[in-house]
């Protein structure tokens, strides 16, 4: 294994970057924030990483106590990686990076995202004012991956796994949900053309998606970037 580079700087921020600043390290953390994953599932969430590099990052993060490898009990009996308690403290760091990055004048909104990145984005783009008085529970099924999202008391919570009593379930690709939540895609149109299958309350689904809004872009050279250059489905939603 290659020797990790170090900033050789006594600042704690520099030490943190020694631990998680290597390419792919923080994205591995992102993939584990909603729960443990097998190596093959991590590869699916990070399709551009090579198996060797992923193995190296996992070994480094485990050696630095950011993640731990453990064997699931039967009948699964497979090995998974998960964040340590200390590793989970990186969640607000990751969420703030998402908020900061989406405001970049050069970030292309509407690109293809994975299921974990999409679900985590709900924690960042949630607008408590839009959710005032709402209590919602929605289940999302992306192939063999299942997530649950709850809105209540002015907060949103997302996790991997099935919901006990969802008001609605959605079966589709992450990209469709991205367009419904942050773009101008129409729920009925998506269901009609086969991009989405849903059961339960469509009203609850529509209310859920209305709880999220993209922040304004940071100023680019003293002026706001013209959203007319963006894909039409990913222009900022008008406030209700």
Could you name the CATH topology of the largest domain?
Answer: Nonspecific Lipid-transfer Protein, Chain A
Order of helices and strands: HHHHEEHHHEEEEHHEH
**Which stretches are poorly predicted, pLDDT < 50 over at least 5 residues?**
228-233, 235-240
How many domains comprise the coordinates?
A: 2
How far is the N terminus from the C terminus?
A: 53 Å
**Major sheet strand order:** 5-4-3-6-7
> How large is the share of residues in beta strands?
15-25%
Fill in the keyword field for this structure.
2 domains; 7 strands; disordered C terminus; globular; alpha+beta; Arc Repressor Mutant, subunit A; two-stranded antiparallel sheet; 5-stranded mixed beta sheet; 240 residues; Nonspecific Lipid-transfer Protein, Chain A; 10 helices
Describe the model.
This protein is an alpha+beta fold and 240 residues long. The protein has two domains: 12-89, Arc Repressor Mutant, subunit A, CATH 1.10.10.10; 112-209, Nonspecific Lipid-transfer Protein, Chain A, CATH 3.30.1050.10. The chain is 36% helix and 17% strand. It is built from ten helices and seven strands. The protein has helices at residues 12-20, 25-32, 39-45, 51-63, 85-88, 91-102, 115-125, 174-182, 187-192, 202-209; strands at residues 67-71, 79-83, 136-142, 145-152, 155-160, 168-172, 196-200. The strands form two sheets. Strands 5-4-3-6-7 form a five-stranded mixed sheet. A two-stranded antiparallel ribbon has the order 1-2. β4 and β5 form a beta hairpin. The longest helix has 13 residues, at 51-63. The relative contact order is 0.11.
């Amino acid at each position: 294994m290659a020797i990790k580079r170090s900033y050789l700087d006594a600042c704690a921020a520099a030490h943190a970057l020694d631990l998680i600043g290597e390419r792919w390290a923080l994205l591995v953390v992102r993939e584990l924030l909603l729960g443990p994953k097998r190596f093959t599932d991590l590869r699916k969430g990070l399709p551009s990483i090579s198996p060797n590099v992923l193995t190296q990052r996992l070994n480094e993060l485990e050696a630095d106590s950011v993640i731990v490898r453990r064997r699931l009990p039967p009948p699964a009996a497979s090995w998974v990686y998960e964040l340590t308690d200390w590793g989970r403290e990186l969640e607000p760091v990751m969420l703030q990076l998402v908020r900061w990055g989406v405001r970049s004048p050069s970030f292309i909104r509407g690109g293809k995202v994975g299921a974990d990145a999409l679900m985590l984005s709900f924690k960042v783009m949630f607008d408590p004012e839009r959710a005032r008085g709402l209590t919602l529970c929605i289940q999302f099924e992306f192939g063999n991956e299942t997530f649950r999202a709850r809105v209540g008391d002015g907060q949103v919570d997302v996790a991997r796994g099935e919901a006990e009593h969802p008001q609605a379930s959605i079966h589709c690709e992450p990209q469709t949900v991205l367009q419904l939540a942050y773009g101008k895609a129409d729920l009925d149109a998506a269901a009609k053309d086969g991009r989405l299958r849903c059961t339960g309350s469509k009203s609850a689904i529509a209310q859920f998606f209305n709880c999220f809004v993209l922040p304004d872009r940071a100023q680019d050279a003293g002026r706001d970037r013209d959203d007319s250059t963006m894909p039409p489905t990913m222009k900022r939603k008008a406030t209700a």
